[in-house]
UniProtKB/TrEMBL annotation:
CDD domains: PIN_VapC_PhoHL-ATPase. This is PhoH family protein. The lineage of its organism: Bacteria, Pseudomonadati, Bacteroidota, Cytophagia, Cytophagales. SUPFAM superfamilies: P-loop containing nucleoside triphosphate hydrolases, PIN domain-like. Residues 1-28 have a biased composition (Polar residues). It comes from Pontibacter saemangeumensis.
Amino acid sequence: MASTKTSSAASGNSKVSKSNATVRNSKTARVKPGATEAGTKKVFVLDTSVILYDHSAVQNFMEHDVAIPITVLEELDNFKKGNDIKNFEAREFIRYIDKLSAEHKLQEWLPLNGKNKGAFKVLMNEATSMDATTIFGDKNDHRILNSALTLKQEMPGSKIVLVTKDINLRLKARALNLTAEDYETGKIQDVAGLYSGNDTVEDVPAPVISELYEKGVCDPEKVLQAVPKDNHFFILKSFKSSSLAFYNAAEKQLERVDKPTAFGVKPRNAEQTFALHALLNPEIKLVSVQGVAGTGKTLLALASAIEQRREYKQIYLARPVVPLSNKDIGYLPGDIKSKLNPYMEPLWDNLKYIQNQFAETSKEFQKIRDMVDLEKLVITPLAYIRGRSLSNIYFIVDEAQNLTPHEVKTIISRAGENTKIVFTGDVHQIDTPYLDSQSNGLSYLIDRAKDHPLYAHITLLKGERSELANLANELL
């Protein structure tokens, strides 16, 4: 049996903490927090960043109690208008709290919906003996700290934990001897072991590789020690020869992978070959391509889409708008198109690269121009796509590492008949303040969707943009 170099998958979706359930007398009566049978009762205080990341966060703390400072409600009021996902999260949370408190006061502990859930309240008191606004300055973050510190004084028998996606706020809390944690639900624990989508198999018997070249398929038991994940790719090596292969989940067999070409774009390494194979495969409806800058993620996805233009009504290439220095696009001059052009320029660069492979007088060059003019190919901010029904569309989402898990789920849930969705990005290049390599939507998708027959993933390792770009990725 051949030996395999495997890539371990990360285990995610952990909760912040667990302990034995507290028995409550009624689902509608007020609940007084107390000690659990296992020991100290925990009360989690959530800040605004957690709610904007996941509006259902209050439901994810098992039997423990959850509270939010009144300042959080004030901040959410500023986020409720708009079309971004943070605006949706704010509105959904406000509706949930409104329904939860329909017959009760928010200053009282209200039972959360669900079996063995804790209680919820809004913290009104900020009169703590250790005033964070005096120490750090008068701002909302420090009022949130005061609410948590006040609760700690009021409930000396309980462990008060501030939960926030803001690293600096966690550090300030700890400086005040207040326990602070990140929101862990949906977070991937082992990014280094994130599913790569392919393996190298050494010492493959030469007759097996010959069979792959002759028949195009072979029994995976001749090569692998265990059943591989659906749509997994392999580099098979024997003493004198090698072959690229793909595990067809429907046929339960290994298939040889040839080097395809997509509208003039040819793969330059094995991983790019695997990516093109998945992108051009009509049976695979969901693809993710992960890799550092210059590995060809967006270029391969766009070229594959144009190659299959006759199979889809439209091609959408979208990306989230993440302004520099986290400033709103309103700080830029001009109309909305002028404001957004700087963020869409990398996508246009890839399109121009594909187009410039052909002479200006060629039909291929003109075809791309016509697709843009007739809006057969549309490059647009991701916010302009939300809420639309994605039927008969090849949909590419670039820079997907800047999305939350909920955003990724929302996009995929919009898919209609004959739609293919492709996510590209680099999980180590996060541009938003409250996401990291463990909590972003691309990492979450790769970890949760692996081994599904409709999904394929590949991690691109080698930069192909230029030797200078490779120097930056490797040495700087």
